[in-house]
Specification:
Two copies of one chain form a homodimer.
Chain A lengths: L8 E3 L5 E11 L11 H17 L4 E11 L6 H16 L3 E9 L4 E11 L14 E5 L4 H11 L9 H7 L5 H9 L5 E5 L3 H12 L2 E5 L19 H7 L5 E6 L10 E2 L2 E10 L4 E4 L5 E3 L10
Parallel strand pairs in A: 3-4, 8-12
Antiparallel strand pairs in A: 2-5, 3-5, 6-9, 6-11, 7-9, 8-11, 10-11, 12-13
Helix pairs in contact in A: 1-2, 1-5, 3-4
């Protein structure tokens, strides 16, 4: 409701709705590299990943606050390009800039708070999974991690259109899918895949006080291309542990599972396993044996 | 409404109220010094300064999100002490932790988003000052800056009870005063004094498309004590340019000015000048001449 000027933003909540709040660090060195990531992608991604948390609840993003710390060397063309990517993401996700805080700093530091909304009582939480529920994921897993590896090997800053790095640089939060699953009360639990399936499924199961069993052969993996180069990583390992995909991980009670389409607006939805009452996560490997799946996704404290 | 676990917080807005959103950096080296500022004060102040933006609108703080990046060396006693200060501030301001994001980092980085609320249409903005309005400030100005100087000169980390550094380390956002001014429709414009009167009054005037004239002899300055040491700075300069006081700067239409008490719950309220239609800010000095007041408060880009 206010323009830039006041230190605060004013928001008129929609009646009958709850407000969703989420914030995310996006830090040079930790989450992106100044010399490898185009400023345009930094702008897009810092908003996309925070919006993804709103999507993972079934909510609708409304506005965001941007906290930005920059070196004075980056207030010219870098900032313009950053704001360009941010603006495109803002339009695409219908999530408007409502305020923020800026300061000067040697390193590029970004923090984004996203405010969303959802009809009261409709939010899908991590904690709702029950034994017997079918575990689904959207899209293909490991694609962002593959893009990151390509990016690190490459000597040049990638062009925005490169399909191999697109998912890593310009992730698309699954807003419409999340809303559809929440509105139709299909998902018993949901979260986004930010740190990798093996880490995030552990979190969902911990919140739901359950375990899970997944089948490696059912994972929607990336198809490799010759340009990936070495070292070649197995697609299944990328799908299990690769982070940054921002796909949705959700569970559906088995009696409702047939209502989940194979494709939702062109996006593949795949059943990869089921929730178990026995704690721990087991994976049925391609060779037919069953093993414990450890959380080996991205962890800033490791 | 949710415990820690999901990546997001859910908030049920109060009917007939608007939501206030604000975020603030609090960065080692820029906003505090690891070796000079007690962890307890860092915890208190990172929340207090963000809450102050809600107070400056006349709002009521409800909850906050904490984004924290820490070196692994600071996850033990430092973090405990930090959380202790944060918890005290959270209770004092009735503003509960609703979520956040944590990561590892060489430097201590903090970003706080505060969510508040205010009855629809009651928010006091920066832009409402009109020529002839009387300019008020709460408390005494320059006290936090004086505390910072003492802190920098001191060899030890100060004890929490030291009255000379209390205002710098443990500022108190003027929540109740802000609410009272908004509810009684006394303030035509308002903001908090975070960067110093000379800088902040320029912002208020710019937002209101006015100028201002203040009288130096009326400024509520600090009373110096012998322990301050040298270099001795003139109290008027501290009051004009010292930052971090988190007092309220507000304007009141002259016909309502007599309804502003000299003390509000023990806090001094002082008329220091008036809003003018002529742009620019003039100060009537102690020697009786009138000069332009330049924005010489704190500016991270200078």
């Amino acid at each position: 409701m206010l323009g830039i000027g006041d230190d605060t933003a004013l928001l008129r909540p929609k009646p009958g709705h709850e407000t969703i709040l989420t914030c995310d660090w996006f830090l040079e060195g930790t989450h992106f590299l100044r010399d490898k990531h185009p400023a345009d992608a930094v702008g897009w991604k810092c908003l996309a990943r925070a919006v993804s948390d709103v999507a993972a609840m079934g909510g609708t993003p409304r506005c965001f606050l941007l906290s930005l710390a920059l070196p004075s060397s980056h207030t010219g063309p870098w900032l313009d390009e950053f704001l360009g990517g941010l603006r495109r993401a803002s339009r695409k996700f219908a999530c408007v800039l409502a305020g923020g805080d800026t300061t000067q700093r040697k390193e590029i530091l970004i923090n984004v708070t996203v405010v969303g909304e959802i009809r009261s009582g409709h939010a899908v939480l991590r904690s709702g999974a029950r034994p017997g529920d079918i575990i689904f994921v959207s899209g293909r897993l490991g694609e962002a991690e593959m893009g990151l590896r390509i990016l690190k090997q490459s000597k040049k800053i990638p062009v925005p259109g490169n399909p191999l790095t697109r998912k890593h640089l310009y992730p698309e939060p699954r807003i419409v899918l999340g809303q559809w699953l929440a509105k139709n009360r299909l998902a018993s639990s949901m979260m986004d895949l930010s740190d990798g399936l093996s880490s995030d499924l552990h979190r969902l199961c911990a919140a739901s006080a359950t375990g899970a069993r997944i089948e490696a052969t059912r994972l929607p993996t990336v198809s490799f291309t010759s340009s990936l180069g070495r070292p070649r990583v197995h697609p299944t390992l990328l799908a299990l542990h690769g982070g940054d995909d921002y796909e949705l991980l959700f569970t559906v009670p088995s009696r409702k599972a047939e209502r989940v389409p194979r494709y939702f607006e062109g996006l593949r939805l795949t059943a990869v396993g089921e929730i178990t009452s026995k704690r721990g996560i087991r994976v049925l490997t391609e060779s037919g044996d069953e093993r414990a799946l450890l959380a080996e996704g991205w962890d800033p404290f490791r």
